[in-house]
Prior knowledge:
The chain is of the alpha/beta class. It folds into three domains: 86 residues, Rossmann fold (3-Layer(aba) Sandwich), CATH 3.40.50; 80 residues, 3-Layer(aba) Sandwich (Rossmann fold), CATH 3.40.50.1980; 142 residues, Nitrogenase molybdenum iron protein domain (Rossmann fold, 3-Layer(aba) Sandwich). 45% of the residues lie in helices and 14% in strands.
Amino acid sequence: MEFDPLNYPELWYFGQPRVPCTYLDKRDYVYGSRDKLTEALHFLESNMNFDLIVIVNSPGAALIGDDVRDIAMDEIQGTPVFTVETPGYSRDIWEGYSSACCQIIRELLPDAPLPVNTGTRKKVNILGMSIFHKYYQGDCREFTRLLDLCGIDVSCILCCECTFEEIMGMRNADLNIVVDTIYGMDAARLLEEKYQIPYVSCPGVPVGFSAAETLIHQVCSLLNADSAAFVTESEKSRARAYIYLSRLNSLTGLPKGVKFAVHGTCSQCYGYTAFLIRYFGMTADCISVLDPPGANSPPAPEYEELCRLLEKTSMSGALHKDILSTDAELVFADGNIIAKLKAMHRDFSGIEISLPSMGYTDVIPKTHLGLSGGLLLCEQIINGLMFR
């Protein structure tokens, strides 16, 4: 009989093979969760070979008042363990992710740095990628590929398909690359403070050819690496995109002037908006930022760059428009927003850039970042305009 991941029978996994769970019930909320958590930890330690155990304390369990960290330290002896508190899910997802990454660096990594890397190939860590990004697998592969062209190895992509050994080896990197500042900047600053590892970032996620070129050239300059192979690859990607875009433009005049909307974090909004305006010549109808600056906090650099770009192109009004009132021809958003607009019978093509998804299954890893991401966006935009 073939393995069925939807009928996973192992104790504490409740039909799914990925993350064990105690599944507290009403009795546990009255009498406490210590017994159930202790039983689960003993089972996992005895039957599974873990390098690290992380306990995420849910809001309901937090209300009981059990000291989950104390319980874990009492019951687990040979495996590193730490807890992540999520009281009331009261913060945005990127704040929780960033906090967890910093907790890993503080609690797991020893204070002493590893010996300096003396190899011929430089090593980098990539920060700010997470499984919450829609195309995280493709994102990881794309930047590993582009850096490899420059003779640079990726030591660790923190909290995104990385191993325990890779996390412990982060201290030996020559440079940290922050791909998405809202997710990775705090970790980069902490690693610089703790191990004196410098970091590099770019405004917004590196969507499109120019953003990828700027970031890779910046990395190569700091590490004294050879970018010749990357330059050749970038020229090939640009040439391929030009073939299809010039054909579309000659037949229809598109995509120049097409109205678009973007709904996402500030990093996403700037990255996508800059590529769509500068490369495709499109017009911003609505830019809906999930994390705008607060009344008592300074705007993020990405937000300032976004404002300058929209002002320079006379599109500042796009920042003040509600995403559900857009009449854009292309909408770059999560699946929920796209579904809502479809339910309102709007005539547009939706391109998902974040989760949750409308349900389309990506079997082959994809990306909107780097050179491959620029090509995929060209494909999605061309088909979105031709078949909407």
